[in-house]
Structure formats: structure tokens, C-alpha cells
Amino acid sequence: MGKERAADRSFSWPRLVLLWLLGMDLRITILAVPPVLPLIHRQLHLDEKMVAALTGLPVLLFGLVAIPGSLLIARLGARRAAIAGILLVGGGSALRGVGPSVPMLYAMTAVMGAGVAVMQPALPTLVGSWFASRVPLATAVYANGLLISEMLAASLTIPVVLPLLGGSWPASFVFWSVPVLITAFLLLFATSHVSSRVSHVRARWWPDWHHLRTWQLGFMLGGISALYFGCNAFLPSYLLAIGRPGLVDAGLTALNTGQLPASFLIMLLGRRVVGHRWPFIALALTGLVSLGGLLLPSAPVMIAAAALVGFSAAGGLILALALPPLLARPDDVHRVAAGMLAIGYSLSFLLPYLGGAVWDATHLTISALFPGVVGSLIMALMATTVRLKPTVVVSIGTGR
Does pTM surpass 0.85? Predict the structure, then answer.
């Protein structure tokens, strides 16, 4: 109780705002891609597998670099690791359009994805350190920044940014990198390094792969992310394939705007929904029904369905991101988060890529829904089996 009172007294609105900005940096450069995919597709002659790889490469890096990110946090601390990650995100994103060429596009996309992968386990650690007694609120706040950034990139790129920049998709990547680099400056000069518990933290960074819950949390996150990233990757191509190109901008906007109510709802409800399994199941079922709505011929129904897909994916994401600070000791949060992210984002890369491969092989437009359907089913299955009680998830095993 004393710790909670101390945490409440140290509650900092500037840090909460900074968390929100950090959340924006997790996705704003990534979601700048779907609106300009048709331009990239045409200019660089990409097939559907290459499109899936381009949109899924950052997601794959989220998984592959999550564990090195945990090591970086253990060695440098969460704040310094976050600064390093932000600089990789901003720099890599700005350089994606150099040429333009396929090798540079994919190489710098990998750099950008690696930066986000470092930031992602750092943010739950900062939440546990800065807002120990208000984990649901702080998680929902930085997730809200993440979601708003997705909405901004998806909804403003075509009608505002591209006309401003003469229709240049490479220049649009530079445009969306600017706020990321500004956040790096603020984090560097508006906060200070905290070196408490350094000796213990440095001894622990490797996730406990023998713990069942590490895998359950990872697959749950993977299913949630496959629902969202799969829909973002294939919605433009799906709408073009069924002869509804006029719905691309509205569909992406609805998908990303539909996420915002989920973040505000979780801010309001807090622990009444965080740490429970039933919200995951309800959101998975909502996602399945919404994907079915994309098959209907009515434009309003399709737009509403895209919005509900966004709501389902966002709600599941926020609830999942809140789990590491709730389930682990403060000095183990980055390890829990790294294990969950490594498994989850590897899966959420694989499912959309398989969806693209199936589409190329069968030429069936319904293949666009494959990642979301499978992801929703995985999310529901994991939610029915995982034990969401505040015990130490990875407190034993190899401390590398």
C-alpha cells in the first residue's frame, strides 16, 4: 500500500504525455505505408508476396529483435534503450524512399522495424517504473497514442500529405519521420536516467521459454496482431480486386479510427477489464463477425465492419500490453514483454505472409481474410486457457 501511495504522489502528467508520444512513434511510420502501397506497387513492380513482405517485415522484426531489445534494456535501462530505438525508427523510415529502389526500401524498413522492436519491451518497463499503481491507465494512454498515429497516417497521407509533397511517396516517409525524431529529443532532454536495481536487471534478460504462459501470451498477441496487420496489408488490394477502389481511403480510415473507442473505453474501465480473459474472447468473436461483414456488397456495412475490426484488434492489443507489468516483478517486465513480443509478432508476420501466398496461388480474393480469421481464433483459444493471475512469469531459468 505504501508503494502505491508513493507511486500516486509521483504521478507525472508530463511523463504521461511523453508516454503518449512514444506510443505514436511505435506505428506512425509503419502505417504510412498502406495508403501509398498502390504507388509503390506500380513503380517498383511488387507482387502480392512482396507486398505482404513489405508490410509484414517490420512485424517480423518486432519478434526477432524483441529479445536483443530486452538485452539492451538490461544493459542501458529502458529510457536509453527507448531513445536508441526512436532514432532507428526515425532514421530508417526517412531513408526508405532513397532511390527509390527495392533493396533500399526493404533494408531501411528492416532498420525501422528493429527500432520499434527495441521500443516495444521498453515501454511496458517504463510504465511499470513511472506508473506502478496505474498500469491500466498508463498502458491505455500510450496505446492511445499508438492508435491515433495509425489513424493520422492512414487518413491524412492520401488527401493531405501526398498533395503537399507533389505526390511523392518517398517524401511522405520523410514527413512522418519528423515527429518521431522530435520525440527522441524530448525524451533525451526532458527525462533523466534511473540506475536503480541495475545490478539485478543486468543479470536478467533472457525469457523463460519453459514457462507455458510465455507461449500463451505470445500466441494471444500474435493472433491479435494478425487480425490488425493482415487487414491493413490486404484491405486496399482486396477492395481494388472486388472493384471498389473508392472505398480504400474510407476503409483504412475506418479501420484505424475504429481503434480509438477501444483505448478510451479501457482508460475508463481500467482493472474491470484488464487482467481478465472474457474481454479477449468477446473481442475475438467481434473480429470474426466483422471480417464477415467485409464480404457483403453494401459500402456502409463494409466501412462499419472495417471499423469494428479495428476496435477488436485495438482492444485486444491494449489488454495484452498491460499484462507484463501486471504479471511480472518490476525487474522482469522487459523479459516477459520480450518473450511475448518475440512469439507474437513472429506469428503475426507469418499469417499475413501465408495469406499473400495463398492469394497468389489461388487468385481468390477471400484469401485476404485468412490472417484475421486465424488470428481471431488463436486469440480466443489462448484466452480460454491462459491463467491471468499476478504471479512471476519468468523469474527463474537462465539469467543471461
Answer: no
Backbone angles phi, psi at 102, to 5 degrees: -65, -45
8 Å CB contact between 330 and 129: yes
Task: Give residue-wise pLDDT tens across range 211-269.
Answer: 888 899 999 999 998 998 888 878 888 888 888 888 888 888 888 788 889 988 888 88
Phi–psi pair at 65, nearest 5 degrees: -100, 0
Quote the CA–CA distance of 34 and 28 in Å, as a whole number: 11
Beta carbons within 8 Å of 185's beta carbon, 6+ residues apart = none
Torsion-angle region of 256 (φ positive above 0: left; ψ -120 to 50: alpha; else: beta) = alpha
**All three cell numbers of 4:** 502505491
Mean pLDDT (whole number) for 52-79 = 82
210 CB neighbour count, 10 Å cutoff:
11
Task: Render the burial of 324-359: b for 16+ CB within 10 Å, e for the rest.
Answer: bbbbbbbbbbbbbbbbbbbbbbbbbbbbbbbbbebb
What's the CA gap between 108 and 114, in Å, rounded? Answer: 10
Residue showing cell 536495481? 197
Backbone angles phi, psi at 119, to 5 degrees: -70, -35
As given in the structure block, the three cell numbers for residue 119 are 521500443
Query: For residue 221, which of 346, 60, 123, 57 has the smallest C-alpha distance?
Result: 346
For residues 181 and 22, the answer to whether their CB atoms sit within 8 Å is: no
Write out the CATH class of domain 10-385. mainly alpha
**Which has the closest alpha carbon to 265: 125, 136, 120?**
136
